[in-house]
């Protein structure tokens, strides 16, 4: 298990992370979401031991990660942006990785290189962002890590390549119990692939739990009451994040237990009452409490 305990970090005079606590179960696909500047990348750099917190710590199976080669050897980081490799080809970078990671699997590397149609002699520096991402996935998967940490890893990849890579990742999770921690603005993708999700906003964790449990607590209620004047009273009994009205139809975004919601609504003799599930994107947008268009803009 990867554990973040009471982690805080200031950069300059700005508080970037504020008392972060997370438990990332072994074999999970754990997504982290948040606005631009919320602290996602800074958190990830602590997970992989690049940064040390001002207070708190990160542990991997009981080992502190910062300045711990044994812990770092079990994890691989795919960043959003890549370092300059000064004209080196793919095989040169592979040699660097072999020196860092003793478990590097040459056979798997050659298999993946063939799958993605690379010879190893290509100049990495001249690649597009998407091609660089493909190579980084090849190298990361050749290490067969216990923990794969990724920051916006699918930007620049076409849908077919994304699916191929996800299929390989899911197979590694299933067969080897590899753990994935991923930051992404592609919320629909995280919604379909992740089993755990955390939301970070302004350096604080808003929620962090299984996606199934999270969705059990968020609902869209569409209701028409027999007596429309009672709508205000109904709203006061529910934990409402948003309320919109079109004609007589009221649409409420509610946090709570679905059975209790239905029981409460029934007291007001609704003509129409339907409770619908929310997508991860809906939960993200409504939890942060802003308008859709404004929030989509800050998400990037």
UniProtKB/TrEMBL annotation:
Organism whose genome encodes this protein: Candidatus Erysipelatoclostridium merdavium
Q: Name one GO molecular function term.
A: ATP binding
Q: What keywords appear on the UniProt entry?
A: ATP-binding, Nucleotide-binding, Transport
Location of the ABC transporter domain? 2-227
Q: Name one Pfam family in it.
A: ABC_tran
SMART domains to which the protein is assigned, alphabetical = AAA (SM00382)
> What's the superkingdom here?
Bacteria
List the protein's name: ABC transporter ATP-binding protein
């Amino acid at each position: 298990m990867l554990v973040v305990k009471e982690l805080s970090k200031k950069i300059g005079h700005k508080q970037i992370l504020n008392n972060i606590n997370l438990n990332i179960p072994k074999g999970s696909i754990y997504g982290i979401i948040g606005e631009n500047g919320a602290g996602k990348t800074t958190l990830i750099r602590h997970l992989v031991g690049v940064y040390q917190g001002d207070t708190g710590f990160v542990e991997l199976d009981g080992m502190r990660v910062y300045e711990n080669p044994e812990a770092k050897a079990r994890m691989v980081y795919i960043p959003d942006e890549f370092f300059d490799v000064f004209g080196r080809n793919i095989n040169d970078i592979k040699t660097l990785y072999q020196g860092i990671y003793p478990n590097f699997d040459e056979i798997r590397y050659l298999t993946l290189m063939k799958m993605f149609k690379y010879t190893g002699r290509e100049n990495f520096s001249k690649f597009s962002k998407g091609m660089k991402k493909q190579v980084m996935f090849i190298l990361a998967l050749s290490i067969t890590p216990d923990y794969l940490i990724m920051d916006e890893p699918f930007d620049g990849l076409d849908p077919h390549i994304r699916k191929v890579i996800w299929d390989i990742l899911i197979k590694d999770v299933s067969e080897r119990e590899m753990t994935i921690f991923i930051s992404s603005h592609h919320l629909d993708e995280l919604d379909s692939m992740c089993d755990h999700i955390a939301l970070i906003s302004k350096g604080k964790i808003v929620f962090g739990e299984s996606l199934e449990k999270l969705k059990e607590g968020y609902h869209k209620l569409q209701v028409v009451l027999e007596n429309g004047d009672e709508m205000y009273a109904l709203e006061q009994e529910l934990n409402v994040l948003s309320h919109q009205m079109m004609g007589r139809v009221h649409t409420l975004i509610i946090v709570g237990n679905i059975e209790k919601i239905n029981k409460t609504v029934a007291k007001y003799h609704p003509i129409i009452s339907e409770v619908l599930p929310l997508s991860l994107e809906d939960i993200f947008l409504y939890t942060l409490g802003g308008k859709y268009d404004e929030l989509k803009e800050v998400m990037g």
